[in-house]
């Protein structure tokens, strides 16, 4: 029996001169086999799916910058620019960790002395509580629970003294470091071989879904880039501005607090938590006015950034209204975890695109024909 002839073509493409014909049983068996193999592959890699997901998101977002850099400085080479971008991403994760470790090492002894003194003598009621709203109630609770060693002991704060919990924490940290390492490694190969991967995915998407699949994939790419750019750029801006504010207010470790604000900014209430930490440190120093100013300024900045600037930046790329962008971010985090910051708006953007094309409000492969539109009208 002669095999179907194929036409020679570039790597990554495949064309048949005569169509292959499968009977119904062969087609069903082939689909079942493909499904089983796909599920087995996903199950095999399920522990590394977060690393693959983040590497894919970062590669999609950094790809335009990488292409532009290669066009401007082509002599760097095929591996040069992917390596440079990968190192920059790695430093983006490593540098904050180094700052945190440095601060913990520098202040660890002081914190331990403070805890020991608090358990032995209690923590006196701060004087500024009397001037705050409901200050007398807060001061009363503080006097009953924190001002004496007996009150602190009655809080029943769990303190780990065994090695099992310590080993569990070390294991969790090691697991996340391992995932971050693989994420960086995968990112390098995605940036290096992105053209070939994208071409193969484009061919597979077109063969499986036609023009509609290509249109949806393009919209998903725009949504991912817009979401990441909105999160990163706005978070970086918040971190820089609040870092300056922390320094002017005299907060300790202003640079570290600025980095913490930038990293927590994409997470709902994350930047608010960083500002609250800075306010607490200022209050502990007795700088009540500076703490109030930082709290008010940080609250206004975070509100404007989270509810106006970031949704507008993401919405321009995904063509989504403000409300849908916000719901996509919050719902994505609730459903998918941290990676839902990007997955949520991207999924909402794809579903919205399909709906707009289907009802005919936007041109595309799913747009109804003229006869159907006129019949409905």
Brief characterization of the structure:
By secondary structure, the protein is an all-alpha fold. The chain has helices spanning 24-44, 49-72, 80-121, 135-145, 149-154, 163-192, 194-249, 254-264, 270-284, 288-318, 322-336, 340-359, 370-376.
In words, what does this structure look like?
- By secondary structure, the protein is mainly alpha-helical.
- The protein has two domains: 48-130 and 144-150 and 168-193, no CATH class; 209-366.
- The protein has 13 helices and no strands.
- It has helices at residues 24-44, 49-72, 80-121, 135-145, 149-154, 163-192, 194-249, 254-264, 270-284, 288-318, 322-336, 340-359, 370-376.
- Helix 7 (194-249) runs parallel beside helix 9 (270-284) and helix 10 crosses helix 11 (322-336).
- The longest helix is centred in the middle third of the chain and has 56 residues, at 194-249.
- The radius of gyration is 28 Å and the shape is elongated.
- Mean pLDDT is 76; it is low at 1-6, 158-162 and 370-377.
């Amino acid at each position: 029996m002669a095999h179907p002839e194929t036409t020679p073509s570039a790597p990554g493409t495949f064309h048949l001169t005569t169509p292959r014909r499968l009977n119904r049983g062969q087609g069903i068996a082939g689909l079942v086999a493909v499904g089983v193999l796909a599920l087995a592959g996903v199950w095999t890699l399920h522990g590394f799916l977060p690393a693959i997901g983040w590497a894919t998101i970062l590669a999609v977002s950094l790809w335009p910058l990488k292409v532009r850099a290669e066009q401007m400085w082509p002599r760097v080479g095929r591996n040069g620019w992917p390596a440079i971008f990968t190192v920059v991403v790695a430093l983006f994760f490593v540098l904050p960790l180094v700052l945190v470790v440095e601060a913990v090492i520098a202040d660890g002894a002081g914190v331990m002395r403070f805890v020991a003194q608090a358990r032995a003598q209690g923590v006196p009621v701060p004087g500024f509580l009397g001037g705050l709203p409901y200050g007398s109630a807060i001061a009363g609770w503080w006097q009953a629970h924190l001002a004496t060693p007996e009150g602190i002991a009655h809080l029943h704060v769990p303190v780990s003294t065994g090695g099992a919990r310590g080993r569990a924490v070390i294991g969790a940290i090691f697991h996340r470091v391992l995932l971050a390492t693989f994420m960086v490694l995968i990112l390098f190969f995605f940036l290096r071989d992105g053209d070939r991967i994208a071409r193969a995915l484009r061919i597979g998407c077109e063969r499986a879904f036609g023009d509609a699949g290509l249109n949806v994939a393009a919209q998903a790419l725009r949504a991912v880039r817009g979401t990441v750019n909105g999160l990163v750029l706005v978070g970086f801006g918040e971190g820089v501005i609040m870092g300056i504010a922390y320094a002017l207010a005299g907060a300790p470790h202003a640079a570290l607090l600025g980095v913490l604000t930038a990293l927590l900014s994409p997470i709902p209430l994350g930047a608010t938590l960083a500002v609250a930490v800075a306010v607490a440190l200022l209050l502990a120093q007795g700088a009540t006015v500076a703490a109030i100013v930082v709290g008010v300024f940080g609250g206004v900045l975070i509100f404007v950034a989270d509810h106006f600037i970031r949704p507008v930046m993401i919405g321009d790329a995904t063509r989504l209204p403000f409300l849908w962008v916000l719901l996509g971010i919050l719902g994505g985090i609730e459903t998918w975890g941290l990676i839902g910051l990007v997955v949520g708006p991207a999924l909402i953007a794809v579903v919205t695109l399909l709906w707009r094309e289907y009802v005919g409000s936007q041109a595309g492969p799913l747009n109804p024909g003229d006869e159907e539109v006129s019949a409905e009208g």
